[in-house]
Amino acid sequence: MGRGYDEGGSGFAWFLAGLGLGAVIGVLYAPKSGAETRQDILNAADEGRDFVTNRARQARDQASQWVDRGRDILTQQRDNVASAVRAGKEAYRQATSEGTTGSGTSTSGI
Fold first, then answer.
1. CA atoms within 13 A of residue 3's CA, in its CB half-sphere
2. Contact at 8 Å (CB) between 59 and 69?
3. Which one of 7, 13, 19, 109 is least enclosed by Cβ atoms within 10 Å?
4. CA dist 31 to 21, 23, 34, 43, 44, Å?
């Protein structure tokens, strides 16, 4: 109601029609022949494919580096925890062996 466009969704259809019309006019007024234009389109498509392939390779390499780094950190943390558990067990053994080999008197003050 007074907004200047159709709310029924036909605005997108008009956009597509204008896009198609613009493409046709662009091809008709292009300074190159049809064969040259097709070759340019193929070259651009090849460049796009190469770009996407390279970016995918870079992303895969980056993900692989992150996985390797995560694996290294996990291994390091696992070793740290194992070392701490061993130290705790040894401290417990020493504490319990000192308690059983002591003089038998309690120093708790009771």
1. 6
2. no
3. 109
4. 18, 14, 10, 17, 17
CA dist., res. 78 & res. 84, Å (int): 10
Q: Are 18 and 12 in contact (CB under 8 A)?
A: no
Cα-flanking dihedrals φ and ψ of residue 109, to 5°? 85, 20
The per-residue pLDDT for range 35-89, each reduced to its tens digit, is: 887 888 788 888 989 999 999 999 999 999 999 999 999 999 999 999 999 999 9
Q: Are 32 and 40 in contact (CB under 8 A)?
A: yes
Task: Pull the structure tokens for residue 52.
Answer: 């996407």
Predicted model pTM:
0.45
